[in-house]
Amino acid sequence: MKLELRGITKVFGTFVANDSIDLVVEPGEIHSLLGENGAGKSTLMNVLYGLYQPDGGQILLDDRPVQFSGPGDAMRAGIGMVHQHFMLVPPFTVAENVVLGHEPTKGGLLDLATARRTVREISARFGFDLDPDAIVEELPVGAQQRVEIIKALSRRAEILVLDEPTAVLTPQETDELMAIMRQLRDEGTSIVFITHKLREVKAVADRITVIRRGRVVGSADPSADQTELASLMVGRQVALTLDKAPAEPGDTALQVRGLTVTDEAGVTTLDGVDLDVRRGEVLGIAGVQGNGQTELTEALLGLQKNVRGSILLGGEEIVGRSTRQVLDAGVGFVPEDRTHDALVPDFSVAENLVLDQHRRPPFGSGLSLKLKAIHERAKEAVREYDVRTGSVDSAVSTLSGGNQQKIVMARALGRDLSLFIASQPTRGVDVGSIEFLHRRIIAERDKGTPVIIVSTELDEITQLSDRIAVMYRGSILGIVPGDEDRDVLGLMMAGYTVEAAREAVAGGARTTDTQLVDEGEIV
Amino acid sequence: MSQAIEGSARPVAPGTANEPTPPASEENARREDAATLLQRIARGNVLVVVLAFVFAFLIGSILILVASAEVRAAAGYLFARPADTFRAAWDAITGAYAAMFRGSVFDLQGFTRVREDLESRGGSGSYVWGPALLRGFKPLLETLTVATPLIIASIGMAVSFRSGLFNIGGTGQLIVGAVAAGFVGFAVSLPPVIHVLVCIAAAIIAGGLYGGLAGFLKARFGASEVITTIMLNWIAVYGLAYALTTSAFTGANKAQPTSPSVGENAVLPLIAGSQNRLHLGLLIAVLAAVFLWWLMSRSAMGFRFRAVGSNPRAAEVAGIDVGRSAIGVMFAAGALVGLAGGVHILGTEHRLTGNVAGSIGFDAITVALLGRSGPLGIVLAGILFAGLSTGGRFMESNQSVPLDLVQVIQALVVLFIAAPPLVRYLVGLRSVDRPGAPRARGRRAASPAAAAPAPSGSSAAPASSSAPEPRSAGTDTKGGTA
């Protein structure tokens, strides 16, 4: 089915989210919508899906104008959408989720046999390995996404909108998703692929439309240069690589020995981790999400309960200390999920910037707060980190994700540190801001602070790290130099040891990225 | 690395970036300041509260009509002489509300009587006006007396609400505070000033410990404070009932389930003459309101309370002890409610009875919510609530309108305030926004104004005020505007 958007305009108050956007998606093409956070991609797709009414413009399906007053209309017209945050009922089975909303019935009863058959048929067609009776919340994220795709396909979607589908996936799952997208396209489904990741766009898209500040600023072929796309997206020249001087590591500042964590159910989530971090170096921790990285950082911060082993920070044992004592020892921490772990949504920017510092001078005396000092600090941080906010008194929840992340980073880096730990330091942050935050991390390293970066983005790990530790199932599989081959890292993340991974790569194993490099598509 | 692009690594100073500006940018904020002032007032809570009262009184009027014997009698021959019915209706409504005003704020008859009486005896100037005004405002002074413990208790409630804990234990904490103050008041004999201070301290500590117990159960064992505080209410209610059967509390007269009066030195002094019950507790209520302001917006402890209330996980990661905070919140809340109980005993009741707490513990929840858990709001809401009950009592005796009606009006006020969109809808300020649902599901919504019927100038552009902003549509809950 051919989809055409003509002059779509959507206004929120005085803010123009979509300004006369034109977009044509041909049948059987993967059309990538590229843009930074807040560029208006999701708004546009919500208009298409009937969640928002456009303030101007037209939607045409196969050259016929249509109007959707809700997602139901859009679905009936053959549009399917996979949201970034899944719309699944966690305790339901796969089959139940797939038929939810248009349940097949037999004599007034739910006909689950038909539902299971639907799931099996579609799974078989695309090689999904999905059990219709599996409980959704027990499935890995990648499988949950496939449930969403099956849900859309089971309603005969001919146009599939994928909103930031790779944000939650591991590199392997991302590769699998791309294979699925290609297969769907080959069977005639049109796909709108929303993302801000250049690598993925180049790997899978047939056409690229770039959106900036609610307007279409250009379209491109996948053969376009990455820098060109990035500049188009951000509206200025951006550096995709980081210039950094070689590390000058000092003495060992952090020594972790035999660190073991068990969760409340008694399962070992972190298993005998040994690590050293020296002053003035960045240790990157790579790994697929959920392999013990969260437990490691939380154990360092005193946020985990059953911790055995030893953590020496500057020669002092910090296992068994409270989070407050660890922070007082000079540890700066950026948690992986800023909305959940780092920010108090209805606190102002200024209040959030002193959340962990409010007891100490100059911001507080233990009894009362020094509002003036807090205010000054906030203004300084907002200026230094270029946080886009109306005022330092605005609630932090009114800021965009990238600006919120800057506040978390500014808070952690706002004092002299004995150790800096950042998990996913640039998650959800746009290209322009990533560059700045990376620079700031390296500046901290160059001041002589030991730095630990945890990230599931291999790009980020390889750009920042002087050494890389790969975590797998709660253990460290190996520690390799910062310039280790990407494919070796990818295989290690899948559970290969260093030697096995190097051997396999030498023998010709490779991932999507390197294939593209060989085909000359990525420089 | 594979994506390296030579020559493009030109550093760009942050701040020169041409990034998309979120809607809440400085420019926009400034531009909106002037344009939407009216709109914001229309949206503001104050107007909703006022309108809620208007609607509650309108519905109350209907109930007065139904309850009035004269109106019913006149309605019996409505078609024969309709004017009678309308006159009776008008008289019933104006009579009832006039009585409510007279019973809660200013008694013109009393004022006139005292003035004429004194003038007939040859008085003039302040000799006449002073006593006359005091008599005229006697209902208001009584309203303030009733409001005093209510305000203090509501302030305690506000501490817990603003810290994300739903304290339902007002009754229990109030009783415990009253018992502590009362017991120290009648069982101990101390010099003036010191005695009343010791009684108040006892009330604060007892209430604090009782509230803190619920906080401890939550922090240590994860017990819901809603359940524990309700159960602690019953323990306090029946504990008091039992205590009033023991000679330790009833003194010599064991037949009566009341305690002796507190000692003379333990009584809070009257501050508006011996004819009125208003006592020094009013000043304590004002101080409590100031304390609430300081605690929640200036103190480090309040900062932690609020942080834990809003996002406990983020607070924990920032080194704040969440459990200790819960105990602290409940202690502070309980201490303030306990203080209310102490003030009630030492100022108004003077002796413990089984029903010493009345409905203050639950009314305090309503008042705190009505006052948006802010100091000024609570003081105003507390006086209002007290006025409704003193006025209602007078209305009942003077106009034989049942007191239950006042409670219905109170309930209606709260009901309307709890549903601001309903109030706005009733006055046609703008269409109802269903919370959470994307607006303008209608098929005609093609223009920006279509979703908002605009009956007056004040609502020229309110369509987006609570319509989902781009980021609330569930597509990007990480906070980025879509």
TrEMBL record, chain A:
Print the keywords alphabetically: ATP-binding, Nucleotide-binding
Q: Per its UniProt record, what Gene3D superfamilies does this chain match?
A: P-loop containing nucleotide triphosphate hydrolases (3.40.50.300)
Cite the CDD domains for this sequence.
ABC_Carb_Monos_I, ABC_Carb_Monos_II
Family annotation (InterPro entries): AAA+_ATPase, ABC_carbohydrate_import_ATPase, ABC_transporter-like_ATP-bd, ABC_transporter-like_CS, P-loop_NTPase
What GO molecular functions are on record for this protein?
ATP binding
- Report if keyword ATP-binding is assigned: yes
Q: Name one Pfam family in it.
A: ABC_tran
Coiled-coil regions listed: none
Q: Where is the ABC transporter domain?
A: 3-238, 254-498
Q: Does the keyword Isomerase apply?
A: no
Q: Which residues cross the membrane?
A: none
What is the protein name given in its UniProt record?
ABC transporter ATP-binding protein
From TrEMBL, chain B:
Q: Which UniProt keywords apply?
A: Cell membrane, Membrane, Transmembrane, Transmembrane helix
Primary subcellular site in the record, as a coarse category: membrane
Q: Where is the composition biased (Low complexity)?
A: 436-474
Intracellular or extracellular location(s): Cell membrane
Q: Which residues cross the membrane?
A: 46-69, 143-161, 168-188, 194-214, 226-244, 278-296, 326-346, 352-370, 377-395, 407-427
Domain of life the protein comes from: Bacteria
Q: How does it sit in the membrane?
A: Multi-pass membrane protein
Query: Which stretches of sequence are listed as region Disordered?
Result: 1-30, 436-482
Q: Which CDD domains match?
A: TM_PBP1_transp_TpRbsC_like (cd06580)
Q: What is this protein called?
A: ABC transporter permease
